[in-house]
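Customer escalation, tier 2.

The customer says the design service returned an amino acid string that "doesn't look like it belongs to this structure." They asked us to rerun it and document both sides in this ticket. The original structure tokens are below, unchanged.
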């Protein structure tokens, strides 16, 4: 960045490349996006909420409350279930200097613009037919994303209980009040994703414990 802080990192981990976008801070900079050459990518809002999630089947676009705005499947995603949902071009700004353009599975670009100069990183990928045997089972979210969503719902439920305690300090039954409908819906969605996602039984039990605590 013009401030001198590191903006984008491209590194190799085993047999894949990873592109990481950091926020403009000198210390403890949060990760705003991660793009992996195996097709898994995540972009986050400035507040840390998940914005875009992609894998070799397709992707999802979420709002800052965690609700899905849209989803799509890649044209060559032969393992996707249900009807094919085409991608509508996506253009987002992670911050004032870094933008992301998504036009296709192999047409994803991270653009960095500062002081009149621009750099572009092509971070898309394309799954070949020869890779079919190595494709993982259908899943929209990875382990990290599921844990992130589970902790987010847990924190929101704790805040809701805190508000109930502050608003009704003399009510002995405040802790028995049910959470808002949207939190119940998000909890059910996460539990459903745990059932359909390719994760270990131990992680599945941990996520269930987090959201049901």
């Amino acid at each position: 960045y013009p401030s001198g802080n590191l903006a984008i990192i491209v590194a190799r981990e085993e047999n894949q490349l990873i592109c990481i976008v950091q926020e403009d801070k000198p210390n403890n900079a949060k990760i705003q996006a991660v793009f992996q050459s195996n097709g898994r990518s995540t972009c986050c809002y400035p507040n840390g909420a998940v914005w875009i999630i992609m894998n070799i089947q397709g992707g999802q676009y979420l709002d800052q409350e965690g609700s899905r705005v849209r989803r799509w499947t890649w044209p060559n995603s032969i393992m996707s279930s249900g009807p094919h949902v085409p991608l509508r071009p996506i253009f987002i700004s992670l911050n004032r200097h870094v933008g992301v353009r998504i036009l296709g599975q192999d047409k994803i670009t991270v653009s960095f613009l500062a002081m009149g100069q621009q750099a572009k990183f092509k971070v898309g990928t394309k799954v070949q037919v020869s890779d079919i045997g190595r494709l993982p089972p259908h899943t929209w979210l990875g382990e990290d994303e599921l844990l992130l969503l589970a902790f987010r719902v847990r924190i929101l439920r704790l805040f809701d209980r805190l508000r109930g305690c502050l608003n009704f300090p003399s009510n002995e039954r405040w802790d028995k009040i049910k959470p808002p409908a949207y939190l119940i819906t998000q909890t059910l969605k996460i539990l459903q994703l745990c059932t359909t996602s390719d994760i270990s039984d131990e992680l599945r039990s941990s996520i269930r414990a987090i959201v049901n605590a």
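Tier 2 assessment: The sequence is consistent with the input. Helices lie at 143-167, 181-196, 201-212. Residues 8-122 form one domain. Sent an explanation to the customer and offered a walkthrough call.
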